[in-house]
Amino acid sequence: MPGLTACSLCAGETLVGIDPLPGGQAERLRRLADEGVARLTFVECLDECERGDVVVARPTAHCRRAGVAPVWFERLAGDDATDALATWLRAGGPGAGRPPAPLDELVIDRSAPAQDDAHVHTA
């Protein structure tokens, strides 16, 4: 099963004040975990604060062993984005194909060189 890592500090930041769901984006992600779509881990910070609602889709163990990298998303909030994420994760997530079109613009390019050594990330 793929995994998700989300920043507990920015979950829901993109929709602050307008999200109709009690618990906001964090609740949407918890529901995906409760439904068995992905394992969910909340961390205090992913050091991408300016991007808001940062979520990392982690590949299955099999795909990780094959060298598949996690996929980082920014501004991943709301029902539509979460539904697209769930569909992709159900199909296998990272390693099973590209994220669906609605998520393309939310992918963070992790192959670009870091601008500042303090912002280098590993997953």
Describe the structure.
The chain is built from four helices and five strands, in the order βαββαβααβ. It is of the alpha+beta class and 123 residues long. The protein has one domain (3-100, 107-112). It has a five-stranded mixed β-sheet with strand order 2-1-3-4-5, covered by helices on one side. The longest helix has 12 residues, at 79-90.
- Helical region count? 4
Q: Mean pLDDT, rounded to whole units?
A: 88
Number of strands: 5
What's the domain count? 1
What's the main sheet like?
5 strands, mixed
Q: Write down the secondary-structure element order.
A: EHEEHEHHE
Task: State the shape.
Answer: globular
Rg of Cα set: 14 Å
The separation of the N and C termini measures 17 Å
List the helices and strands and how they pair.
Blueprint: E1 3-7, H1 24-34, E2 39-43, E3 55-58, H2 61-65, E4 71-73, H3 79-90, H4 101-104, E5 107-108
Parallel strand pairs: 1-2
Antiparallel strand pairs: 1-3, 3-4, 4-5
Q: Brief description of this entry?
A:
With 123 residues, the protein is an alpha+beta fold.
Give a quick set of tags describing it.
single chain; 15% strand; alpha+beta; 123 residues; globular
